[in-house]
Design goal:
The chain is an alpha+beta fold. The chain has a single domain, classed as Roll (Nuclear Transport Factor 2, Chain: A). About 35% of the residues lie in helices and about 35% in strands. It is built from 5 helices and 6 strands; from the N terminus they run ααββαββββαα. Strands 2-1-6-5-4-3 form a 6-stranded mixed β-sheet. A hairpin with a 2-residue loop joins strand 3 and strand 4. It is globular. The N terminus is likely disordered.
């Protein structure tokens, strides 16, 4: 399922208006998909820790914001299908298919994500993925640039 867009968290909202952790993560991923970098950054806590396991960790909203702006400044696209989402307290687990897109290049792969949410903001985002699966997705994406019928579609993995 593709997350539905909801308005970004407004600082004037009362604590009773703050989304559940699952709703916050859904909104966060949807804002990424829509390229709404300011909403993505607004949903990140000042102390956010962002990790793609086995890659360097980004710590803090300033660094996270710079990385997010750079991603979208280079006209990368992002799509997501959330297969499963489960929450327990402030923790949210997602099983997803993510697609990273640049022009005719589309790299689509499985991801398991762990999020921690506090007061409607993401404090931790840790993604796990399989390097073999990611390398095959990269190869398929490169072939798809030359032969469009090879490009992955969400229906191929859902």
């Amino acid at each position: 399922m593709t997350p539905k867009r909801q308005p970004a968290h407004d600082a004037t909202e009362s604590p009773d208006d703050i989304r559940s952790p699952e709703e916050t993560v859904t909104h966060f991923l949807n804002a990424m998909q829509e390229g709404d970098v300011e909403a993505v950054i607004a949903l990140a806590a000042d102390e956010i820790v962002y990790t793609n396991v086995s890659l360097p960790t980004i710590r803090g909203k300033d660094r996270f914001g710079r990385a997010a702006r750079a991603y979208y400044r280079h006209h990368f696209g992002f799509q997501v299908v959330v297969h499963r989402i489960a929450g327990s307290g402030s923790s949210v687990l997602t099983e997803r298919t993510d697609a990273l897109i640049l022009g005719p290049f589309r790299m689509q792969f499985w991801v398991c994500g762990v999020f921690e949410v506090d007061n409607g903001q993401v404090t931790l985002w840790r993604d796990y993925f399989d390097w073999r699966n990611t390398m095959l997705a990269t190869l398929r994406g490169l072939v798809g640039v030359i032969i469009p019928s090879f490009r992955a579609k969400f229906s191929d993995t859902c």
